[in-house]
Amino acid sequence: MKCASNEAVCGGVCVVLGRDNANCGSCGNACTAGQRCDPQQRTCKVCIQMSSAIEVSAGGGQYEALALGDLNGDGHLDLVTVDSGSTVRVLMGLGNGSFANPVAYATTSQSGSSWSLAVGDMNSDGSADVVVGNSFGMYVLLNQGDGSLTAPLASAGGGIVAIGDLNGDQLPDVVSASGGSVAVALNAGAGAFASPVLYGMDGSAYSVALGDLNGDGTLDMVSADGSNVGVRLGLGDGSFSSRVSFSASAFSVAIGDLNGDGKVDVVTVSFQSEYAYVLLGQGDGNLAAPVAYRLGTGAESVVLADVNRDGNLDVIAAANASVVVLLGLGDGRLADVIEYPAPCGNSVAVGDLNGDSWPDLVTTGFWGAPHAFGVVLNASSSLCVAPGP
Predict the structure, then answer these.
(1) Whether the Cβ atoms of residue 138 and residue 131 lie closer than 8 Å to each other
(2) Which of 78, 154, 183, 332 falls 20 to 30 Å from 44 in CA-CA distance?
(3) What is the dihedral sign for C-alpha 242, 247, 252, 255?
(4) pTM of this prediction?
Protein backbone atom coordinates (compact mmCIF):
# COMPACT_ATOMS: atom_id res chain seq x y z
CA MET A 1 0.00 0.00 0.00
CA LYS A 2 1.31 3.41 -0.96
CA CYS A 3 0.56 6.28 1.41
CA ALA A 4 1.28 10.02 1.35
CA SER A 5 4.66 11.20 2.61
CA ASN A 6 3.20 12.19 5.99
CA GLU A 7 1.32 8.91 6.47
CA ALA A 8 2.09 5.37 7.58
CA VAL A 9 0.30 2.05 7.10
CA CYS A 10 -1.41 0.90 10.31
CA GLY A 11 -3.68 -2.14 10.13
CA GLY A 12 -3.88 -1.88 6.37
CA VAL A 13 -5.00 1.76 6.44
CA CYS A 14 -3.03 4.96 5.75
CA VAL A 15 -3.00 7.19 8.83
CA VAL A 16 -1.26 10.40 9.88
CA LEU A 17 0.58 9.34 13.02
CA GLY A 18 0.47 12.84 14.51
CA ARG A 19 -3.28 13.18 14.09
CA ASP A 20 -4.66 9.72 14.82
CA ASN A 21 -5.56 9.10 18.47
CA ALA A 22 -5.47 5.35 17.85
CA ASN A 23 -2.00 5.43 16.31
CA CYS A 24 -0.19 8.35 17.89
CA GLY A 25 3.44 8.47 16.79
CA SER A 26 3.46 4.76 16.01
CA CYS A 27 0.97 2.11 15.00
CA GLY A 28 -1.12 0.86 17.91
CA ASN A 29 -0.10 3.61 20.35
CA ALA A 30 -3.61 4.65 21.38
CA CYS A 31 -4.34 7.71 23.50
CA THR A 32 -6.49 7.07 26.58
CA ALA A 33 -9.46 9.00 28.01
CA GLY A 34 -8.73 12.68 28.39
CA GLN A 35 -5.77 12.55 25.97
CA ARG A 36 -5.19 13.66 22.41
CA CYS A 37 -2.35 13.07 19.98
CA ASP A 38 -0.10 16.14 19.82
CA PRO A 39 0.48 16.71 16.07
CA GLN A 40 3.85 18.37 16.66
CA GLN A 41 5.41 15.97 19.16
CA ARG A 42 3.39 12.92 18.07
CA THR A 43 2.79 11.86 21.65
CA CYS A 44 -0.38 11.46 23.70
CA LYS A 45 -1.01 14.41 25.98
CA VAL A 46 -3.73 15.19 28.50
CA CYS A 47 -6.12 17.62 26.84
CA ILE A 48 -8.95 17.91 29.35
CA GLN A 49 -8.05 19.67 32.55
CA MET A 50 -10.53 20.98 35.11
CA SER A 51 -9.67 23.29 37.99
CA SER A 52 -10.50 22.39 41.57
CA ALA A 53 -14.13 23.11 42.38
CA ILE A 54 -14.92 26.45 43.97
CA GLU A 55 -17.72 26.31 46.54
CA VAL A 56 -20.05 29.31 46.52
CA SER A 57 -22.90 29.81 48.97
CA ALA A 58 -25.98 31.73 47.88
CA GLY A 59 -28.02 31.29 51.06
CA GLY A 60 -31.54 29.92 51.31
CA GLY A 61 -32.72 26.35 51.45
CA GLN A 62 -31.52 23.18 49.84
CA TYR A 63 -30.86 23.77 46.15
CA GLU A 64 -32.79 21.55 43.77
CA ALA A 65 -31.74 22.69 40.30
CA LEU A 66 -29.81 25.28 38.33
CA ALA A 67 -29.58 26.75 34.83
CA LEU A 68 -27.32 29.17 32.96
CA GLY A 69 -28.32 32.03 30.69
CA ASP A 70 -27.48 35.64 29.90
CA LEU A 71 -30.31 37.41 31.71
CA ASN A 72 -29.00 40.98 31.56
CA GLY A 73 -27.57 40.94 28.04
CA ASP A 74 -23.97 41.74 28.99
CA GLY A 75 -22.53 38.71 27.20
CA HIS A 76 -21.77 36.84 30.44
CA LEU A 77 -23.63 33.73 31.56
CA ASP A 78 -25.66 34.20 34.73
CA LEU A 79 -26.65 31.49 37.19
CA VAL A 80 -30.23 30.74 38.21
CA THR A 81 -31.00 28.35 41.07
CA VAL A 82 -34.15 27.21 42.83
CA ASP A 83 -34.30 25.78 46.34
CA SER A 84 -36.61 23.48 48.27
CA GLY A 85 -38.50 26.53 49.56
CA SER A 86 -39.50 27.40 45.98
CA THR A 87 -37.27 30.49 45.94
CA VAL A 88 -35.43 31.42 42.75
CA ARG A 89 -32.04 33.10 43.07
CA VAL A 90 -30.28 34.92 40.25
CA LEU A 91 -26.51 35.45 40.42
CA MET A 92 -25.16 37.70 37.69
CA GLY A 93 -22.01 36.39 36.01
CA LEU A 94 -19.01 38.70 36.18
CA GLY A 95 -17.30 37.16 33.17
CA ASN A 96 -14.37 35.71 35.13
CA GLY A 97 -16.01 32.57 36.54
CA SER A 98 -17.37 34.33 39.60
CA PHE A 99 -20.82 35.75 40.36
CA ALA A 100 -22.42 38.76 42.01
CA ASN A 101 -24.48 38.37 45.18
CA PRO A 102 -27.77 36.55 44.67
CA VAL A 103 -31.14 38.25 44.23
CA ALA A 104 -34.06 36.17 45.51
CA TYR A 105 -37.55 35.79 43.99
CA ALA A 106 -40.36 33.79 45.61
CA THR A 107 -42.52 31.61 43.37
CA THR A 108 -45.20 30.49 45.85
CA SER A 109 -46.01 30.88 49.51
CA GLN A 110 -46.93 27.20 49.77
CA SER A 111 -44.36 24.92 51.37
CA GLY A 112 -43.10 22.28 48.97
CA SER A 113 -40.34 21.23 46.66
CA SER A 114 -39.20 23.01 43.51
CA TRP A 115 -37.85 20.34 41.23
CA SER A 116 -36.50 22.05 38.15
CA LEU A 117 -36.10 25.21 36.13
CA ALA A 118 -35.33 26.28 32.58
CA VAL A 119 -34.29 29.54 30.95
CA GLY A 120 -35.73 30.82 27.68
CA ASP A 121 -37.48 33.78 26.04
CA MET A 122 -41.10 32.96 26.82
CA ASN A 123 -42.70 36.22 25.62
CA SER A 124 -40.56 37.06 22.55
CA ASP A 125 -39.09 40.29 23.95
CA GLY A 126 -35.48 39.22 23.44
CA SER A 127 -34.75 38.59 27.13
CA ALA A 128 -34.27 35.22 28.83
CA ASP A 129 -37.06 34.37 31.26
CA VAL A 130 -37.18 31.72 34.00
CA VAL A 131 -39.58 28.76 34.14
CA VAL A 132 -39.88 26.81 37.40
CA GLY A 133 -41.61 23.48 37.87
CA ASN A 134 -42.53 22.41 41.39
CA SER A 135 -45.02 20.26 43.25
CA PHE A 136 -47.77 22.90 42.99
CA GLY A 137 -47.49 23.87 39.34
CA MET A 138 -45.46 25.81 36.83
CA TYR A 139 -44.30 29.39 37.34
CA VAL A 140 -42.95 31.84 34.77
CA LEU A 141 -40.85 34.78 35.97
CA LEU A 142 -40.50 37.27 33.11
CA ASN A 143 -37.25 39.15 32.63
CA GLN A 144 -37.58 42.94 32.70
CA GLY A 145 -34.60 43.29 30.38
CA ASP A 146 -31.95 43.95 32.99
CA GLY A 147 -31.97 40.51 34.62
CA SER A 148 -34.54 41.40 37.26
CA LEU A 149 -37.66 39.25 37.26
CA THR A 150 -41.36 39.98 37.60
CA ALA A 151 -43.70 38.31 40.05
CA PRO A 152 -44.37 34.73 38.96
CA LEU A 153 -47.21 33.85 36.61
CA ALA A 154 -48.71 30.54 37.72
CA SER A 155 -49.87 27.81 35.34
CA ALA A 156 -50.93 24.21 35.68
CA GLY A 157 -48.32 21.52 35.17
CA GLY A 158 -45.09 21.43 37.13
CA GLY A 159 -42.38 18.89 37.86
CA ILE A 160 -39.33 18.53 35.63
CA VAL A 161 -39.63 21.07 32.81
CA ALA A 162 -38.25 21.30 29.28
CA ILE A 163 -39.00 24.07 26.77
CA GLY A 164 -39.23 24.16 22.97
CA ASP A 165 -41.51 25.23 20.11
CA LEU A 166 -43.88 22.29 19.63
CA ASN A 167 -46.35 23.79 17.15
CA GLY A 168 -44.22 26.04 14.94
CA ASP A 169 -45.58 29.38 16.18
CA GLN A 170 -42.11 30.60 17.22
CA LEU A 171 -43.12 30.59 20.91
CA PRO A 172 -41.45 28.16 23.31
CA ASP A 173 -43.88 25.71 24.86
CA VAL A 174 -43.36 23.76 28.08
CA VAL A 175 -43.34 20.02 28.70
CA SER A 176 -43.26 18.90 32.32
CA ALA A 177 -42.86 15.47 33.89
CA SER A 178 -44.49 14.72 37.22
CA GLY A 179 -46.24 11.80 38.87
CA GLY A 180 -47.50 9.33 36.30
CA SER A 181 -47.79 11.69 33.36
CA VAL A 182 -46.14 14.29 31.15
CA ALA A 183 -47.98 17.59 30.68
CA VAL A 184 -47.76 19.69 27.50
CA ALA A 185 -48.62 23.39 27.92
CA LEU A 186 -48.68 25.48 24.73
CA ASN A 187 -47.49 29.06 24.96
CA ALA A 188 -50.35 31.57 24.67
CA GLY A 189 -48.03 34.59 24.71
CA ALA A 190 -47.01 37.15 27.35
CA GLY A 191 -45.93 34.38 29.72
CA ALA A 192 -49.33 32.67 29.81
CA PHE A 193 -50.05 29.08 28.78
CA ALA A 194 -53.02 27.04 27.62
CA SER A 195 -54.34 24.32 29.90
CA PRO A 196 -51.93 21.40 29.78
CA VAL A 197 -52.67 18.18 27.92
CA LEU A 198 -51.61 15.09 29.85
CA TYR A 199 -49.85 12.06 28.39
CA GLY A 200 -49.70 8.94 30.56
CA MET A 201 -46.59 7.00 31.52
CA ASP A 202 -46.04 3.34 32.39
CA GLY A 203 -44.54 4.47 35.72
CA SER A 204 -43.43 7.67 37.38
CA ALA A 205 -42.30 10.48 35.10
CA TYR A 206 -38.81 11.49 36.28
CA SER A 207 -37.52 13.64 33.44
CA VAL A 208 -38.22 14.81 29.91
CA ALA A 209 -36.25 16.21 26.97
CA LEU A 210 -37.14 17.53 23.51
CA GLY A 211 -35.45 16.90 20.16
CA ASP A 212 -36.15 15.88 16.57
CA LEU A 213 -35.66 12.11 16.57
CA ASN A 214 -37.15 11.36 13.16
CA GLY A 215 -35.81 14.29 11.15
CA ASP A 216 -39.16 15.81 10.19
CA GLY A 217 -38.38 19.24 11.66
CA THR A 218 -40.78 18.82 14.58
CA LEU A 219 -39.69 18.36 18.18
CA ASP A 220 -40.33 14.95 19.70
CA MET A 221 -40.60 14.02 23.38
CA VAL A 222 -38.21 11.73 25.25
CA SER A 223 -39.15 10.78 28.82
CA ALA A 224 -37.77 8.59 31.60
CA ASP A 225 -39.78 6.50 34.05
CA GLY A 226 -36.97 4.72 35.90
CA SER A 227 -36.70 1.57 33.82
CA ASN A 228 -37.67 2.78 30.35
CA VAL A 229 -37.06 5.57 27.87
CA GLY A 230 -40.29 6.68 26.21
CA VAL A 231 -40.46 8.33 22.79
CA ARG A 232 -43.48 10.23 21.53
CA LEU A 233 -43.20 11.74 18.06
CA GLY A 234 -44.36 15.33 17.66
CA LEU A 235 -47.19 15.86 15.18
CA GLY A 236 -46.38 19.53 14.52
CA ASP A 237 -49.45 21.00 16.20
CA GLY A 238 -48.29 20.54 19.79
CA SER A 239 -49.71 17.05 20.13
CA PHE A 240 -47.82 13.75 20.18
CA SER A 241 -48.11 10.18 18.97
CA SER A 242 -48.46 7.14 21.17
CA ARG A 243 -45.52 6.32 23.41
CA VAL A 244 -42.94 3.74 22.35
CA SER A 245 -40.77 2.39 25.18
CA PHE A 246 -37.14 1.29 25.11
CA SER A 247 -35.72 -0.56 28.10
CA ALA A 248 -32.94 1.25 30.00
CA SER A 249 -32.30 2.42 33.53
CA ALA A 250 -33.40 6.04 33.22
CA PHE A 251 -33.89 8.80 35.78
CA SER A 252 -32.49 11.68 33.73
CA VAL A 253 -32.25 11.89 29.92
CA ALA A 254 -30.24 14.02 27.51
CA ILE A 255 -30.25 13.99 23.72
CA GLY A 256 -27.77 14.84 20.98
CA ASP A 257 -25.85 13.37 18.05
CA LEU A 258 -23.04 11.27 19.55
CA ASN A 259 -21.79 9.58 16.39
CA GLY A 260 -22.06 12.33 13.77
CA ASP A 261 -24.63 10.60 11.61
CA GLY A 262 -27.13 13.45 11.84
CA LYS A 263 -29.52 11.38 13.97
CA VAL A 264 -30.42 12.27 17.56
CA ASP A 265 -29.21 9.81 20.20
CA VAL A 266 -30.29 9.42 23.83
CA VAL A 267 -28.21 9.15 27.01
CA THR A 268 -29.67 8.17 30.38
CA VAL A 269 -28.41 8.04 33.96
CA SER A 270 -30.06 6.93 37.18
CA PHE A 271 -29.38 7.16 40.90
CA GLN A 272 -30.22 3.45 40.98
CA SER A 273 -27.44 2.46 38.57
CA GLU A 274 -23.68 2.97 38.33
CA TYR A 275 -23.89 3.21 34.55
CA ALA A 276 -24.75 5.70 31.85
CA TYR A 277 -26.63 4.22 28.91
CA VAL A 278 -26.31 5.28 25.28
CA LEU A 279 -29.20 4.51 22.92
CA LEU A 280 -28.26 5.43 19.37
CA GLY A 281 -31.01 6.99 17.29
CA GLN A 282 -32.10 5.24 14.10
CA GLY A 283 -33.46 8.40 12.49
CA ASP A 284 -37.09 7.31 12.55
CA GLY A 285 -37.85 7.69 16.25
CA ASN A 286 -36.56 4.26 17.15
CA LEU A 287 -33.54 3.68 19.40
CA ALA A 288 -30.91 0.94 19.37
CA ALA A 289 -30.37 -1.31 22.37
CA PRO A 290 -28.65 0.54 25.23
CA VAL A 291 -24.88 0.31 25.67
CA ALA A 292 -23.67 0.73 29.26
CA TYR A 293 -20.70 2.85 30.38
CA ARG A 294 -19.59 2.68 33.99
CA LEU A 295 -19.85 5.84 36.09
CA GLY A 296 -18.88 4.22 39.38
CA THR A 297 -21.83 5.78 41.19
CA GLY A 298 -25.46 6.62 40.68
CA ALA A 299 -26.23 9.96 39.00
CA GLU A 300 -29.12 12.37 39.28
CA SER A 301 -28.80 14.39 36.07
CA VAL A 302 -27.00 14.33 32.74
CA VAL A 303 -26.18 16.85 29.99
CA LEU A 304 -24.31 16.65 26.70
CA ALA A 305 -21.65 19.16 25.65
CA ASP A 306 -18.28 19.21 23.90
CA VAL A 307 -16.14 19.99 26.97
CA ASN A 308 -12.78 19.24 25.30
CA ARG A 309 -13.67 20.93 22.00
CA ASP A 310 -12.70 18.03 19.79
CA GLY A 311 -15.96 18.22 17.84
CA ASN A 312 -17.60 15.30 19.66
CA LEU A 313 -20.35 15.52 22.27
CA ASP A 314 -19.32 14.36 25.74
CA VAL A 315 -21.46 13.12 28.64
CA ILE A 316 -21.45 15.11 31.88
CA ALA A 317 -23.33 13.79 34.89
CA ALA A 318 -23.92 14.99 38.45
CA ALA A 319 -23.15 12.11 40.77
CA ASN A 320 -23.27 12.48 44.55
CA ALA A 321 -20.64 15.08 45.56
CA SER A 322 -18.89 15.07 42.20
CA VAL A 323 -19.30 15.69 38.50
CA VAL A 324 -18.20 13.01 36.06
CA VAL A 325 -17.21 13.30 32.41
CA LEU A 326 -17.18 10.61 29.74
CA LEU A 327 -15.53 11.93 26.61
CA GLY A 328 -17.24 11.12 23.34
CA LEU A 329 -15.14 9.29 20.77
CA GLY A 330 -17.20 10.50 17.83
CA ASP A 331 -18.62 7.13 16.86
CA GLY A 332 -21.22 6.81 19.61
CA ARG A 333 -18.83 5.24 22.09
CA LEU A 334 -17.61 6.89 25.29
CA ALA A 335 -14.18 6.88 26.93
CA ASP A 336 -13.64 5.84 30.54
CA VAL A 337 -15.10 8.07 33.21
CA ILE A 338 -13.15 11.02 34.64
CA GLU A 339 -14.34 12.23 38.04
CA TYR A 340 -14.02 15.75 39.41
CA PRO A 341 -14.89 16.30 43.10
CA ALA A 342 -17.45 19.04 43.69
CA PRO A 343 -19.03 20.40 46.87
CA CYS A 344 -22.45 19.28 45.72
CA GLY A 345 -23.88 17.32 42.88
CA ASN A 346 -27.31 16.22 41.76
CA SER A 347 -27.80 18.89 39.10
CA VAL A 348 -25.27 20.13 36.55
CA ALA A 349 -25.10 22.83 33.87
CA VAL A 350 -22.41 23.58 31.27
CA GLY A 351 -21.33 26.91 29.79
CA ASP A 352 -18.40 29.27 29.30
CA LEU A 353 -18.29 31.28 32.53
CA ASN A 354 -15.04 33.19 32.03
CA GLY A 355 -14.97 34.01 28.33
CA ASP A 356 -12.10 31.73 27.32
CA SER A 357 -14.30 29.70 24.91
CA TRP A 358 -13.94 26.53 27.03
CA PRO A 359 -17.10 25.02 28.57
CA ASP A 360 -17.12 25.15 32.38
CA LEU A 361 -19.23 23.13 34.81
CA VAL A 362 -21.58 24.22 37.60
CA THR A 363 -23.18 21.80 40.04
CA THR A 364 -25.64 22.05 42.88
CA GLY A 365 -27.93 19.78 44.89
CA PHE A 366 -28.48 18.06 48.17
CA TRP A 367 -25.43 15.78 47.93
CA GLY A 368 -22.46 17.30 49.80
CA ALA A 369 -23.13 20.99 50.49
CA PRO A 370 -26.89 21.46 49.98
CA HIS A 371 -26.83 25.26 50.39
CA ALA A 372 -24.08 25.95 47.87
CA PHE A 373 -23.09 25.38 44.29
CA GLY A 374 -19.76 24.36 42.85
CA VAL A 375 -17.94 26.00 39.93
CA VAL A 376 -15.45 23.81 38.05
CA LEU A 377 -13.57 25.91 35.48
CA ASN A 378 -12.22 24.28 32.34
CA ALA A 379 -8.43 24.72 32.24
CA SER A 380 -7.83 22.65 29.10
CA SER A 381 -5.30 23.64 26.46
CA SER A 382 -5.83 24.12 22.73
CA LEU A 383 -4.49 20.57 22.23
CA CYS A 384 -8.02 19.32 22.81
CA VAL A 385 -9.33 21.04 19.70
CA ALA A 386 -9.70 18.66 16.77
CA PRO A 387 -6.72 19.09 14.37
CA GLY A 388 -7.29 20.21 10.81
CA PRO A 389 -6.89 17.98 7.78
Answers:
(1) yes
(2) 332
(3) negative
(4) 0.90
Sign for the CA dihedral angle at 120, 123, 125, 130 comes to negative
Interatomic CA distance for residues 54 and 379, integer angstroms: 14
Distance CA 389, CA 34 (A): 21
CB distance 120 to 144 below 8 Å: no
Distance, in Å, from the CA atom of 88 to the CA atom of 68, rounded to the nearest integer, reads 13
Return the SS3 of 376: strand
Backbone angles phi, psi at 63, to 5 degrees: -75, 140
Q: How many CB atoms lie within 10 A of CB 109?
A: 7
Span 203-233, pLDDT tens digits: 888 999 999 999 999 999 999 999 999 999 9
- Smallest CA-to-CA distance from 93 within 384, 380, 373 is with 373
Contact 104, 110 (CB under 8 A): no
CA 110 from chain center: how many Å? 29
Radius of gyration for the alpha carbons in the chain, expressed in angstroms and rounded: 21
Q: Are 351 and 360 in contact (CB under 8 A)?
A: yes
